[in-house]
Design brief:
Radius of gyration: 42 Å
Structural class: alpha+beta
Strand order of the largest sheet: 6-5-4-3-7
Largest sheet: 5 strands, antiparallel
Number of domains: 4
Strand content: 5-15%
Helix content: 55-70%
Distance between the termini: 105 Å
Mean pLDDT: 75
Number of strands: 10
Amino acid sequence: MLFLSCMAGNTYGRHFKDTVHFRKATIATHDIVMSDSALEELGVDSLLNKVEHIHNGLNDIINITGLGFNTRDIEENYAATDSNIDLIDQNLKLYNNILDVKNLQMFEVLLSGIHSQLTDWRELLFVYDRQLLAMSSELTSFRNDTLLKEIMEDSVFSNEYANELQDVKDKMKLAKRLIAENQARLKQWQVNVSNQYFETIDLENRIKDMLRKISVKAIGKEYNYLWEAENVSAVSKSESGQMVKQSYSGQQKILTYYFKKNWLDQFWMLLTGVFFFVWIFSNFKQLEKAGKYKSTVNEFIFINKVSILSTLVLLFSIAPFFDLHPPTAYVQVIEFLLVTAITFLLWNKWAKDLLYYWFAIAVLYIAFSVTGILLVPTYGFRVLLLCLNIVAVVFGILWFRRLRKNTIAFAPMIKVVTGIFVLLNIVAVFGNLYGRLSIAKIFSVTAIYGLAQIIGLSIFIQIILEAFHLQTIVNKLKGGLIGKLNFMKVEKLITTILVIISIVVWCIVFSISLNIYNLLYEQIVFFLTKPRKIGTTDFQIGNILLFLVTIYISNLFQQGVGSLYGRQESNWDPEIKKNASRLAITRLLLIVVGFFIAVAASGLPMDKITIVLGALGVGIGLGLQTIVNNLVSGVILIFEQPFRIGDYIELGDKRGRVIDIGIRSSKILMEEGAEIIMPNADLLSGRVINWTLRNDNVRIELAITIMPGHTVSEIEQIIREELKSNENVVTTIEPEILLSALTDKSMSLRILVWINDVHKTQMLKSKLLSNIYAALEKNEIKIV
């Protein structure tokens, strides 16, 4: 804003300058001689405005340059960035002869972050430099201003306003000095940052070359066959030990830098863990207050009141989602923490034989992790790795056989990964034997990481499911609509979502361990975002997938929302009927909103959507009339509400209770127990009898025949008293007791009575008849 005002002031100054030239030209034309104070012809107010304008412009420049430009981030982080660049450079020199792909890829990720940071710094410094140039140009225009020079030369004006003019001169000198100082400081930072920037580019190119060499060496023969190898190495033992120390120190420093640089990701991950822990803890506290803790705690395996280990397993399992481009060393640290947390969590949770298998996996994990960080491929190292691979293959086969018993959750998923584990170790054995040591090391570490990760993810799924189950129990204690949440109905949906998440996490960790994650990520992004064209229509595969996934998710939600209105076969809560219309409307809104969100998220132009809808209209005309008719009928049923969930309806020879109202069809539970899926169009166009539109009351008829000997009024009094004693009889409507037939041997009565639950008609008929029979028998009235 300050620079805009200065620029506006320049325009104003040029206006004055043009005025002076105009007046001087006019005087010269008319041969007028200017006096010493001839400038007063312009007006003192105009001259003072001019001085004030320049004064304000100089103040703006001094204020900005006096405070200095904000380079705090550069000043605070420059030394650390320079140190990390030097550290990476030293490690690259270490790996000139012995190439380690994991560390190189870690350096590549870190250099990418440094490159991005240096790019931001350079752009910021360029902006500041342009601002300084603009201020310098502004100051030059002030110094060369024609009117200001004329004012300085006018003795009358300069004597009268000497202080003001001197202040302008002093501010010009100060502004010039401050601009020069800031330019010098920014220029130095530009030089320093640019040096780091180009050094980073050079290191990135070196890493790419080294990774390319590794790819060539890994495919080809790196070392002699194992049976031809000698116990020698390219470096001495002392040099080897020094390299290991330098490598460890370098990785430690770089990981420290990585955690500092990505602290926000770690913060959100930690916040997620805190939220999960508090969620579980508060739910168990509510169970304690309700006196239900001891009776329900045995329903859970992995969570309890203080679920520290479960929270850690959760965090380390989902850690890859908080950073999609982590260095390999970071993944190794997370995997180690995950294995440790699982070991303590399973201590008293699994059967002994399963626990022994897990201990074996943990030991193999540590062993392969150690072999993965060794830099010098000695003969002894290769023999050790070969033995470990053979042991891993044998263990994998035994573990696979143990999984056939299906005593572990998500055994099929673990079986698949176990097969991959065995296959990778077999490849590692042959790679080691035939001199492809890089492949052997990578496949060995990847195999054990993948196996440990999938077991951890299976436990992660169980932890989340138990957490939802706990929330369901607490909801039932609270009551209300949320208390109607039927966990059994949403468990399958939640499990499916968690399995998909687990597969994605496993694939990320697996590809990172194989050192192909970045390549796959780039190829997938390129495939999804590459512009494509069919005719005149431009599209991207990613947009189409996003559209379909959004529609699929909205459909899952509209199916799962019905769990809030879960039915109970023997008892229908009035609240379910009250909220039934909300369920149908919610489903409709989820589908409609999901469609529009899908369109917006996919970036598809509306004109193309219109074309698609037009084509859909043609399809409707050709063969989709029935489907559309049912969909429209479903919308009408939602808003018109001729019946609700829980209503007892009759359509033709079909009679039963409405248990679900969908967009295309509805479900009716018949008295025999069969569920009928009926199209909405039939329900809307047919003659539907709703027995419970306003209430659940229904009138039933009871017929009895008794022997004569008592008056009708006496019998009627006995029956009325018995009916009033039954809680299911509507007392606000008097029952009708009618004499339907009379002979010398019998008396036939019809009893018309209202009951309050149409769903129990047959049962209540039987109960009332039984009670009336007992009451009449008690009064010695015989029934024929």
